[in-house]
Specification:
heterodimer, A: alpha/beta, three-stranded parallel sheet, 20% helix, B: mainly alpha, Potassium Channel Kv1.1, Chain A, three-stranded mixed sheet, 9 helices, Skp1_comp_dimer (chain B), SKP1 (chain B), ubl conjugation pathway (chain B), SKP1-like protein (chain B), Skp1_comp_POZ (chain B)
């Protein structure tokens, strides 16, 4: 708002105002913090509140209060009555296995297509999963975070696939607005790992946690993204990871589940300023720790490195002194 | 912090070059002057940032006729506290932060900051934050208001916020039926 507009707005000094209600234009902000049920029930307060919730800046849905198969009718009602075809922010938490199924997946696909800001879907139901989820062909969201399975013993990851596209239109399909993507407890279906970069060309942040591939452990993961600044990998069981990210600044690589082969292309390792979470057991002849050592080597330009390395007595980690001195802040825990 | 300046001087609209100063002076609807860090004001308020960039800041106190002195004092207090706060553990954790959550939970100091306000002061601050385009302060204050509504009956909420029920009995019943899906029995 330009300063020139200030004079035209009504003057309301707290001295002589009689406060009888909240200011109307902040209803949609307040309602964004409430569960959808509470937000909708605010219609009962007064006529000014009648349709305020249908403009709420965020919709927060959970099956906490909807037993059996009652979540889906509730979720459909919320979406049907929301005022605008565009939803700024959608947050869904599913904690009951009975709320999951093809109907919920179909509802979610429809809901995701309407979101122009952020989508967060979290399955917390033990042993349950949103499965399979085929993403809609068009997405306008800027930020998407999906946890497709509730975990627990013997539980499977939720399968995730890109839509199959055919014809000339398919060649140009991509989620151009998407800047942030987080996938947890997800099994990437065939070709998703390889085509992630073409579907999400403008990602700035990518986080993969407990992500597996559908075709066994040999699936390739290709992260070839011009804009990517932050990459976090945690228990990603891909055998081959190719990273080509000229703007990557932060690389976080958790857990011991190392990939067998990691390759950096286009000099992307030179931009990395921060390497975090690295934790591994050295003898370097073991292929996994070899990858970890390789990771340390390619990030030698970083000025913030946090790693924990278990080194047995017979190993002499000569690369430590050779590669690391450039970093100004290093947190190493080396157990001998 | 309030600056004690002569009333006559404060009334003048003559502009002084602001570029070299670290602070900006804001004037409330009731003529009181407050000084706030220019850096914090520009970072936290899109409107103040625009005014600073556009040179429409008045050295003798930029008029904010829409904001009373109590609300403006809270705005300035928030800006100063924000400038001095230490990043929380969440910001230095070894994970990427995403914008998918509706918003980042209030920090401890932000919670304390809004908890001590009276209802009227809170509502005035919401309006001031909205007016000045202070996204984070708007989130923190609106979140506080939502907490005061959560799990309460319409009657309880009306009482807390002094809302007048202008529906007829029949209208209320009609809405209640339309909203059957938003009620649950546990």
């Amino acid at each position: 708002m330009a300063a020139g507009n200030l004079a035209h707005l009504p003057v309301c000094s707290s001295d002589h105002r009689i406060r009888d209600d909240l200011p109307e234009d902040i209803f949609e902000h307040v309602l964004a913090f409430l569960p959808a049920e509470d937000a909708a029930r605010s219609s009962l307060l007064s006529k000014r509140w009648r349709n305020a919730w249908t403009r709420a800046r965020a919709l927060n849905l959970s099956d906490e209060h909807h037993h059996g198969r009652r979540f889906l009718p509730f979720a459909r009602a919320v979406l049907a009555r929301y005022g605008s075809p565009e939803i700024p922010s959608l947050n869904v938490v599913i904690g009951r296995e009975s709320s999951l199924g093809p109907g919920t997946v179909a509802w979610l696909r429809g809901a995701m297509e309407r979101v122009v800001g952020s989508v967060s879907v979290t399955v917390t139901a033990p042993g349950g999963a949103l499965d399979p989820l085929v993403l809609p062909p068009r997405l306008r969201a800027v930020s998407i975070s999906l946890t497709l399975s509730g975990g627990g013993t013997g539980s499977k990851h939720g399968r995730l696939a890109f839509p199959s596209v055919s014809g000339a239109a398919g060649a140009t399909s991509s989620y151009d607005a998407l800047e942030e993507l987080s996938l947890s407890r997800v099994q990437l279906q065939e070709r998703v790992g390889a085509s992630l970069s073409s579907w999400c060309p403008r990602l700035r942040k990518l986080r993969l946690r407990k992500v597996s591939g559908g075709g066994g452990p040999t699936w390739p993961l290709v992260v070839r993204m011009e804009q990517l600044e932050e990459l976090e990998m945690d228990e990603v069981n891909s055998a081959v990871v190719e990273i080509s990210t000229p703007r990557l600044e932060t690389l976080i690589w958790h857990g011991g589940g190392f990939t067998k082969l990691i390759s950096f292309l286009a000099g992307s390792q030179r931009s990395i300023r921060r390497l975090d979470g690295l934790c591994f057991y050295l003898p370097a002849k073991e292929s996994r720790s070899f990858t970890a050592v390789r990771l340390l080597e390619v990030c030698s330009e970083a000025n913030e490195i946090s790693a924990r390395i278990d080194i047995p007595e017979h190993c002499s980690p000569s690369w430590l002194s050779r590669e690391v001195p450039k970093a100004t802040a290093i947190a190493f825990v080396v157990l001998l | 912090m309030e600056v004690d300046k002569g009333k006559g001087e404060a009334e003048e609209t003559r502009k002084v070059a602001e570029a070299d100063r670290d602070t900006v002076t804001l004037k409330s609807s009731d003529g009181k002057l407050f000084e706030v860090s220019k850096e914090a004001a520009a970072r936290l308020s899109t409107v103040l940032a625009g005014m600073i960039a556009g040179g429409s800041i008045d050295d003798n106190g930029t008029d904010l006729k829409q904001i009373g002195s109590e609300a403006l004092e809270n705005v300035v207090d928030y800006c100063n506290k924000h400038a001095n706060s230490i990043p929380s553990a969440a910001l230095i954790s070894s994970s990427i932060s995403f914008n998918t959550a509706p918003f980042k939970e209030p920090e401890e100091w932000e919670r304390k900051f809004v908890d001590r306000l009276s209802h009227d002061a809170l509502f005035d601050l919401v309006e001031a934050a909205n007016f000045l385009g202070m996204e984070r302060l708007l989130d923190v204050t609106c979140h506080k208001i939502s907490e005061m509504m959560k799990g309460k009956s319409p009657d309880q909420i009306r009482e807390v916020f002094n809302i007048k029920n202008d529906y007829t009995k029949e209208e209320l019943e009609e809405i209640r039926q339309e909203l059957a899906w938003a009620f649950y029995d546990d």
